[in-house]
């Protein structure tokens, strides 16, 4: 029990460390709970309300081949809902991890629903360059595209049915490696965190 709590604390410290430089908010949700998550975390703003801009990177756990039909249905409904709740000043990006790792969608306005849904339907083919690990990629991408006037958020969408094995799809010739030294430790810690918390709760 003590060692488990220690691991959680280490994961928390590492996650906080990478996000601290530019104040990136991290949220985690299981894919089946994504629609209620959108409702709870992105309420519809009333006319006249002064809502801070949001720069959201969705980090989606995927299978080696792509998403299942059921996953696509959930994601498309969630993004349709999100499109109605965010403003034209907000930004959405999509990064994948686990089965294959890469940037599927660069910063896009929520109102561009056609582009969002196309990306979900063609997730793997939307990735132009495959990477070794998607979690580190998502944080590096969010750092590089940080919006000073916005709330910058990484939403990790966990898929319990997807492979947890690191990218086995991309060949060495197509994989872009990161130069960050703390990447391996960060990937391990962040991947373990949801499972460790679940074990303690049970």
Overall description:
The protein is of the alpha/beta class and 202 residues long. The protein has one domain: 3-Layer(aba) Sandwich (Rossmann fold). The protein has seven helices and seven strands; from the N terminus they run αβαβαββααβαββα. It has a five-stranded mixed β-sheet, with helices on both faces. Strands 5-7 form a two-stranded parallel ribbon. A hairpin with a 3-residue loop joins strand 3 and strand 4 (102-108). The longest helix has 19 residues, at 2-20. The radius of gyration is 17 Å and the shape is globular.
CATH architecture label: 3-Layer(aba) Sandwich
**What is the overall shape?**
globular
Secondary structure: helix percent: 40-55%
Q: Roughly how many Å apart are the termini?
A: 12 Å
Q: Overall mean pLDDT score? A: 78
CATH topology (level 3) name: Rossmann fold
Rg, please? Answer: 17 Å
Strand order of the largest sheet: 1-6-2-3-4
The share of residues in extended strands comes to 15-25%
Number of distinct beta strands: 7
Q: Helices and strands: which structural class?
A: alpha/beta
**Domain count:** 1
Q: Specify the CATH class.
A: Alpha Beta
* SSE order, one letter for each helix or strand: HEHEHEEHHEHEEH
Number of helices: 7
In this structure, how is the largest beta sheet organized?
Answer: 5 strands, mixed
Question: Would you identify the regions where 5 or more consecutive residues have pLDDT less than 50?
Answer: 6-20, 164-189, 195-202
